[in-house]
Amino acid sequence: MWGIMDSKGQITIDYLISITIFLFAIIFVFDYTAGIFTPFQSNSDETTLIADRTSTILVEKILSEKDENAPNMVSKTKICVFFTELDTNYEGTVDYLGLSGSFLRYDFNVTLENETGIIGMAGKTIPSRVNVGQTKRIVLLKDDNTGNTEVAIMSFRVW
Q1: More confident call, 35 vs 48
Q2: Strand partners, 149
Q3: What is the pLDDT of residues 38-63, one digit of tens each?
Q4: Measured between alpha carbons, how far is residue 23 from residues 11, 14, 32, 35 in Å?
Q5: Whole-angstrom Cα distance, residue 156 to residue 53?
Q6: The pTM is what?
Q7: Does residue 141 contact residue 76 with C-beta atoms inside 8 Å?
Q8: Which of 36, 66, 88, 97 is the most buried (most CB within 10 A)?
Q9: 70, pLDDT greater than 90
Q10: What is the CATH topology of the domain spanning 43-158?
Q11: End-to-end CA distance of the chain, in Å?
Q12: What is the DSSP pairing of strand 73-75 with strand 133-142?
């Protein structure tokens, strides 16, 4: 009985090393192939972050009624002035909002709508087949003449 020996010539440590090398090779191949497609990924996450930052600046600072009890209350008069400024002085407004820099320049569109339809829209027309970052904010739209408020949705799009 003691005379029976394994004639395969394989010991446990050799087997363990070969399996480890094989697994590292598989991991390397998967990691490398994932990196090949990185240049073809969209930048919609980046533009969505820029749209979110721009919406925060506009709703909470520029168009705000500065009411601590309603932080998303915006002035209808300020919105009309902003929409007019965005349509008449687009380049200056985009520069003021920080959407143009030395290397990259983003285009911008804002839409204000309530339950009945679109109240107003300003900025450039959204082109087709472009990655567009979008942020929507629910705001209280205050009419400065009557003091009445209504719920509206502001959509901020950056591409």
Answers
A1: 48
A2: 142
A3: 554 555 678 888 899 999 999 988 88
A4: 19, 14, 14, 19
A5: 10
A6: 0.66
A7: yes
A8: 97
A9: no
A10: Ribosomal protein S3 C-terminal domain (3.30.1140)
A11: 79
A12: parallel
Tokens of 121: 């829209």
Residue 33 vs residues 26, 28, 30, 38, 45: alpha-carbon distances, Å: 11, 9, 5, 9, 22
Residue 107: other Cβ atoms inside 10 A? 19
Looking at the chain, list the stretches that DSSP marks H as alpha helix, in order from N- to C-terminal side. 12-36, 44-57, 76-88, 90-96
- What one-character-per-residue DSSP string does 41-52 give? S--HHHHHHHHH
CA distance 19 to 109: 56
Residue type, 20: T
Distances (CA, A) of 4 to 1, 7: 6, 9
Residue 158's H or E segment, with its range, is strand 149-158
